[in-house]
Amino acid sequence: MINNIGISSQRLKIAVAVVLSGVLISVMVSVRIWSLSIEQHNSLIKRTSIAKSELIEHHFASSMPAIINALERMRNRWIARQGPPFSEWQLDAQDYVNDHAGLRAVEWVNKDYIVKWVVPLEGNESAVDLNLTFEANRKQALDLARDLKTYTLSKPVQLVQGGKGFLAYFPIFVGSEFEGFILGVFDVSLLVDSLLPHKFIEDHNIEILSGNEVMYSKKEAELTYDDKTGHTHSFSLYDVKWDIAVWPRKIKEGSENSNIHYIALFNGVLISLLAGIALFYLLKSLISESIISAKDAEHKATLENAIDGIITLDSKGVIRGVNTTAEQIFDRQRGKLIGQKLSALFAEPFRSDYEQCVWRKEQLEEGCVEIGKVQRVAGMLKNGHVFPLDLGITTFEIHKEQLFCCVVKDVSVAVKLAEEKEKLIQQLSKSNEELDNFAYIASHDLKEPLRAIQNHACFLKEDYESILGSDGVYKLDRLVYLGAKMERLISDLMYYSRLGREEPDMARFNMVSAIKSTQSRLSESLEEHGADVTISSEFPTVYGNRTRIEELLYNLIVNGYKYNLSDKKVINIRFDENLKAYCVEDNGIGIDSQFGNDVFKIFKRLNSPKKFGEGSGAGLTIAQKIVERHGGRIWYESELGSGTRFYFTLKDDNQNNEGQ
Amino acid sequence: MKDSKLILIVEDSDDDFYATLRAFKRDGNLSNPLQRCEDGQEALDYLKTPWSDEHLKPAIILLDLNLPGLDGRHVLKKIKQDKRLCNIPVVVLTTSNDEKDIEECYELGANTYIQKPVKLDSLFEAIQKLKDYWFQIAILPKGD
C-alpha cells in the first residue's frame, strides 16, 4: 500500500509536470502564432503600404512626363504659331488642365516674369499678374530655364493658390526672341487625390515629402509612422527627390485586426488550459486505473498463492470464489465449488451445523460460527475422505452486501504429527520412568543378596574362625570389604537415579546457614583431616532444595580436603559477583587439565584410593546432577598443586517475583 | 516364666531373617517366642486368626516393606485400620531409606522406621537396641 501511494503520487507529479509543460508549450505556441500572425498581418499591411507607395510613384512617374510632354508640345505649338491668340491658347490649356488632374493651372508668363494668362482662371485668380520674381526659388528656376532654353522644374513651393506643388517652366523662344514661359502649376494634392481611388486614400495615411518639405499630407488619425506597417518610397523625378510615406490608419488597424489577434491569443491560451486540465484528469484516471489494476493483480496473486485456502461466500453462505489452494484442499475444480454451499464441503456434524447457519454477522456471532476465530472442523472430499480442517471466518461489506471470507487449512499432517509427537512423548516418558524404576529396583534388589553374602561371610567367620585360620579370616574380611564397596557403589547409583526422578521441594534459604550445617555435619571429619571451612563473601538468598544443596556442598567440601596434601587444608566458600556463581575453592592437589569434564563422570576416579582414601567416584557426578536439577551449571578451574575452584550457579526463577 | 511377648517378623528373605534371628539371639537369652511370615498375605492370615495360647497375639511386629505379593505398606495399612490389631507396635525394618517410604509408613501408622544397617555389626547393634527399647523401656499395651 505504501508503495502504491508512493507510485501514485510520483505518477501524479509526473502527470502534473507533463500537463503543465504541455500547457506552457501550448501557450507559448499560441503566443508565437499570435505574434507571427501580427507580424504577418503587419507585413501584409506593409506590403499594401509598399504597393500603395509604389502606385503613387507610378502615378507620379507616369503623369508628370505626360504633363511635361504635353506642356512642351504646347510651347512648341506656341513657337510654331509665333504667339497664338489667347482664345486658342486658352482652349488648348483648358484641355490640358481637364486631362491632367495634377495640373492645377497652365499659365503664360511674359518675359518680365509676370503671369499674364491663367487657365483656368477660377481658383487661380491670385496668380493673375503675379510677378514671379517675388520669390528667389521661382526666379532662379525661371532664370535657369530661360538661360538654358529648356524646361525647368522648380523646387517644391507654396502655391499662391494655396496648397503645395511645383512649377514647370517652359521658355519660349520664337527665333531668338524670348517671349516668356509656359508655366505648368503642379498641385501635389490634386495629383495625388486624382490619381488615387477614394477608398485607397481612406485606408491609409499618406505623406509626401520633397526634401524636408511636406508636400502632401492626408492623415485622418494621429498615428505616427511605423516602419513595421508603413513604407516610405523614395524616388527621384526630374532631379527632384520624393519621399512617399504610406501607413495604415490606427483606428482601422485597431478595430479590425488587433482584437482578433487578442481573441485568438485568448482562445489559444484558454483552449490550452482546458486541454491541459482535461489531459490532467485523463492521465490521473489512467494512473489510478493502472494502480488499481496493479493492486488487483497483486491481490489476486497474493490470494492465489496463499498457502491457505481462501473461500469467499455471499450473504447466503454460497461460495462465490476460491483460490487454488482451496481447490487443492477439497480436490475439486473451481467451477464445481462456486455456487455450492460451504456446508457441502464439511463432514458431519459440521455439515448440519453449517447447513443451519444463518449467514448474518449478528447471528453468526451467537450461533455456530465465531467470526474471526479459528475453529477445527472436518472437511470431506468427494470420495468421503474426512480430514481435519482449520476454519477462520471474517466478514466484510461490498456495496451494502454482507460477504464472508473463509480461510481454510488442511491440518491432517499437523494433526497426525501432533498425535505422533504426543505418542512419542508418552513413550519416552514411559521409557524414562521405566529406566528410573529399573535403576532403583535393580540397585535395591542387588543390595539384598549382596548384604546376605556379607552377612554369611561374617557368620562364617564368627562360627568357624578357629578352623579357618588367619588366611581364611583375611579372605573373609576381604569378602566383606568388597561387598561393602559394592554396596556403596549401588547406594550411590540409587541416590543418583533418585536425584533424576524426584521433583525436589524448592524454598528460599540462607546459604550461610546451609554451609554452617554442612560444616557441622562434617565437623569430625574436618577435624580429623585438619581442614577448615571459611566463608569470604556475602551470599544471595538461595532458591532450591536445601537438603540437596547441602549434599552438593558436602561433596565439594569433602573433595576439598580429601584430595589435599597441604598442612593447613582450607576450603573457602564465596559468591563471585562477576561470574554470578558460587565458588568452593581449596588448596588441594588440583586437577590435571587433561581430565576436563571427566571429573563429573560417574565412578570416575582420578587418584589411587590408597593415596587419598576410599570413594565411589560419584561425588562430583551427584554434585553436577544437583546443580542441573536446580537449573544451574557447574565447572571448575584448577592449577595442579595449588588448588581447585569449583563454581556453580543456581537458577533463581522467583527472583523477579519476590524481589529478595 | 516364659515371656509370652511374641515377636512377629515379616520377612521374605531367608538370609535377612537369619541375620535378624542371629541378632536377636546374640546375647544368648531370647526368651520371647518368634513367629516368621514370609510374605504379606501370610502375615495377614496369621493376624486374622483368633488368638489362643498356641496362636499368640504379637507384642510387636517387625515388617519388611518389599515383600512378594502384598507388600509391607499394604500389610501396615491393614493392621492400622483393624481395631483389633492397631495397638500392636509395628517396626518397619527395611533396606529402603527413601524419604517417600519413610513418610508414607509413618502416615500409615508405623511406630518406628529402621533402615536395615548394611554392616552386620550395625544390624546386631540395632536389633539389640530395638529389643532393649521395646521390651525393657517401652510399656506395651496388654494382650487380650
Automatic annotation (TrEMBL), chain B:
GO terms for biological process: phosphorelay signal transduction system. The modification 4-aspartylphosphate is found at D64. CDD domains: REC_Rcp-like. Residues 6-131 form the Response regulatory domain. PROSITE patterns: RESPONSE_REGULATORY. The keyword Phosphoprotein applies. It comes from the Bacteria. The keyword Phosphoprotein applies. Keywords: Phosphoprotein. This is Response regulatory domain-containing protein. It comes from Pseudoalteromonas luteoviolacea S4060-1.
